[in-house]
Amino acid sequence: MLGNYLIGLREGLEASLVVCILIAYLVKTGRREGLRPVWLGVTLAVVLSFVFGTVLQFGSQTLTFAAQEALGGSLSIIAVGLVTWMVFWMRRTARHLKRELHGKLDAALRMGTAALVVTAFLAVGREGLETSLFVWTAAQSADDGVRPLLGALLGLLTAVLLGWLFYRGAVRINLAKFFTWTGGMLVVVAAGVLAYGFHDLQEADVLPGLGTRAFDVSAQIPPDGWLGTLLKGVFNFQPDPTVLQVTVWALYLIPTLLFFFAPGRVAPNRATPAAAQSAPVAPKEPEPHDTQVADPGARNSDVGSGGAADTQRVRDGARRAGDAAGGVEG
Known about the structure:
By secondary structure, this protein is mostly helical. The protein is built from eleven helices and no strands. It is elongated and about 65 Å long. The relative contact order is 0.15.
């Protein structure tokens, strides 16, 4: 349940931040006519995610046991690949997410209403489809399919609440660190899902080695005991895994964590030094990892004010003083 809460929280928070940034930008720039298309795109993305999850759940029930195991194992591997790509992408681009979304929204505004709907739909739909797939695979590996769904739902509700608080300016956290540590935890959860996916493929006779056990600690950690239930719910732990499961788990988890926490995973500023020197001085825009989502009620003069503008005023004053001095000497 904890692992599914984490995936619901992280994916839901990404979607909530995207919606907050889009809405705040439209409100702040006085283009409220774009709010309805954005909300329409968000609604369509949510509906698509629920439909996708429903099709996975009820469509798989008409298959044979071997086909169900083969489908579950294959989708588990795909889900792990998507989640891994997602955590690395967010780890790298978290600092520039706001700027990137503003650019896409400006382009959509120039193209019209349909482009706004598509922009919001794609931005939120990706997280929704990933969440549906990952939660479904976790529910398939659990004895009780209710707890994974409940955990994901609680995570999504928490994410929606945090997104609203971010928009109102009531909560401020360092999102770069948040996505880094939750991403590391998701890699651990994904390793368990990947191992169980390979176990499903073994049960479907797609892969060999189902009877070759790496170890068996069922006597020490009963699967139906509190510790076995906790470990299975969080890490997809199995007390009697096969050699292939343990091998896949280690080969995925160790290098992925090392690469994920390696220094320099955050994308640097793409501007070159020469371009930075020739470009005019602009007010500094708040970065998204500080959760400074624009407040729709803020004055324009309050946004971006500070060091750059003060420095420019000092330079202008010095220039005028020099001109006046030159006139006296002449």
